[in-house]
Each structure stands twice: as structure tokens, then as C-alpha cells.
């Protein structure tokens, strides 16, 4: 299979995202088929888990069917139950909240920092109550939350930390990979992420004592993993669990991505850097704001966003880009403003930035293989909107 160099343009429209494909994935998928082991925990599942453990310096990495399911597993492992409270930013995807809501927890939403769009760590103390059990920092756009402060607060109040690092593969906080810093970390390999298996994710953790329960949860509540290692002579239902183990075909595709990780990341970073330089003058002139990367963070070029003046400007801007053949998008609608958010949680404090900043944000096309010609067209079109 070959893909044209012009595949970045779908018809007359530059798409917002195209799943990464390097050409090596098919070879491994064919190997998985020849292995006649398609249901998971075969050769490629094990290779991907080992790659994550070695690359991210984490003790355990379990592939899952999605980041949603990794979050659900983490919620079970934290022991969250009916009436417990979990603190997280309102500016996140619904899976972050759903994983804990389905265990009976109440969500306490907090405001975000306007610079990184991440949870404002300075607001955590005010959100903690006697019912609080877990803090969930979400590393938006692959840019790290201020983890030292979050961990200090968690330790002081005897809370667990679950990192939603769905967008954070290979991103760092003070030299540590996102998802490996808290008690549990959750990655996504959805087709919109830097590295993909179509649908998939991973649960990361350091604590040796959590492995057996995590394997049981992932294997439908059975001790099947121990059976296949020869540790027991038969397996049975021993606890709560579900079907969180991905297909070996998905793992084979992901292995191909892992083998080309550096190439994919370098290509994405070139696009991010190009945008960032191209829009410097527009920021200095007050037309927009560019992303902020704190000194403690190394990002992974997961997305490039700009912030315009207000919602009305964003609506006109997105319409203009579409008319020019460019598909750009906004992102999350704050969870606390949704019907489910009001039903399952509450907002702590004042919404100073969450709604205002979310209504200004625009995500530009950024994916592996986008090409310099396409980058230039996007940048020139953005500039024409603000300086016709």
C-alpha cells in the first residue's frame, strides 16, 4: 500500500486530522495474522507493553482498548466508591469524569490556568473536602500540569493522583514522562493521537502490588493472566472486571508506530514550530495568543491551538477557514456546563477562565505527513483573516 504525498488534502479540504501511517504497520499486522493469535496478550501486546515500560521508565504498562478504559481501570484500582469525591478540571473530555461517575463518585470541577489550559493547582486546597479521594490532572495538549505542587497537596491530604495523559505520550515534566508521575497514568492511542492503534490506550503504574488486581480487572475479573504464565492450573472469576484487553491486530499496528516514533514526533514538531514562528507577529499585534509552554514542560506537539479575541471572532474565523478549504475545530465544552456535569458534579469556586478561554480556542490541522506546502497554506490563510 502506498499513499500519495498529497494525501494531506482530502478532496478540496485540508483535513483537521489524518491518522499516522508510516508503511511499517502492515508487516506487523501480517505477522500477527500468521501467529494465529488475534485476541490480545500475544507477541505484539507484550512488545508494546515492554516498549512503554522501557521508554517511559515505568514499572508496569498494560495495553487497553481505550484511554477511557484505562481511566476506568484506574478508578477501580483507587478504590473509589459511592459518595467519594474526585477533583478534576472542567475543561476535559467526558471520559475523565465518566470513569469515576460509574463508580458512584461525585465530580468536583475546578477552574483552569489560562496559560496552559490545565488544572489550576493553586485552587486544589479549596476543592478538598473530607470526601475527597482522588485528584485527576489532565495534561492538555501534551503540556504538563504543575505536578510537584499537585503531588505535595495529594500527600498532605492522603489522596491518590490519576494522570489523564491521553494527549501526553513522550511529553515530560521535569524530565519525567507524563503518566508515570502519579499513582496511575492513562494514555490514549486513538486515531487522533500522535501514535495510534485506531482505538486503544494504556494504563501505567509503578506500584508492584497493583499488578495482580489490574490484570484481573483487564481480564474480565478472572485470574487468566496467571494461568497463561503457568502460575495456576486453571483460571476462574475472582473479582470485578471487564473486557479491557485490545486485539493483537491493534497492538501490531501500534508496534509499527512505536518503531517509527522518533520520525513521527520530529515531523509533528516541525509543524508545531512552523506555526509558532509564523504567528509570532500576529500575537505581538494583539490578534491572537499562541500556546504557552512552561519551563518545566517538554511538549510532544500533540496539537497547535491559537486563542482569538472571543466566541464571535472564533465563529467567524472557523467559518472563514472552512470556506478556504481548511478544517479547523474548537475543543471541549466545559463539563460543568453540561446536563450530566450538573447532575454528577459541581464546580468549586469561580469560573474565571474555563468558559472564557474554551470559547476562544481554535485547533489547527496538525498530523504526521502534513507537508510544508500545506503548512504554508494554513499559515497564510490565518494571516489573511486577521490582516486582509
What's the name of the CATH homologous superfamily of the largest domain? Answer: Type I PLP-dependent aspartate aminotransferase-like (Major domain)
DSSP summary, beta strand count: 15
CATH architecture of the largest domain: 3-Layer(aba) Sandwich
User: Can you tell me the overall shape?
Assistant: globular
Rounded to an integer in angstroms, the radius of gyration calculated over CA atoms is 21 Å
Reported by name, the CATH topology of the largest domain is Aspartate Aminotransferase, domain 2
Distance between the termini: 42 Å
Whole-number tally of structural domains:
2
Helix content: 25-40%
Q: Per DSSP, what share of the residues sits in E-state strands of 2 or more residues?
A: 5-15%
CATH top level of the largest domain? Alpha Beta
Mean pLDDT: 95
Strand order of the largest sheet: 3-11-10-7-6-4-5-14
SSE series: EEHHEHEHEHEHEEEEEHHHHHEEHHEHEH
Spans of at least 5 consecutive residues whose pLDDT stays below 50 are: 1-10
The secondary-structure class comes to alpha/beta
Separate helix tally: 15
How would you describe this protein?
The protein has 2 domains: 9-17 and 261-386, Aspartate Aminotransferase, domain 1 (Alpha-Beta Complex), CATH 3.90.1150; 25-259, 3-Layer(aba) Sandwich (Aspartate Aminotransferase, domain 2), CATH 3.40.640.10. The protein is of the alpha/beta class. The longest helix has 18 residues, at 261-278. 37% of the residues lie in helices and 14% in strands. The two termini are 42 Å apart. The protein is globular and about 75 Å long. It has 15 helices and 15 strands.
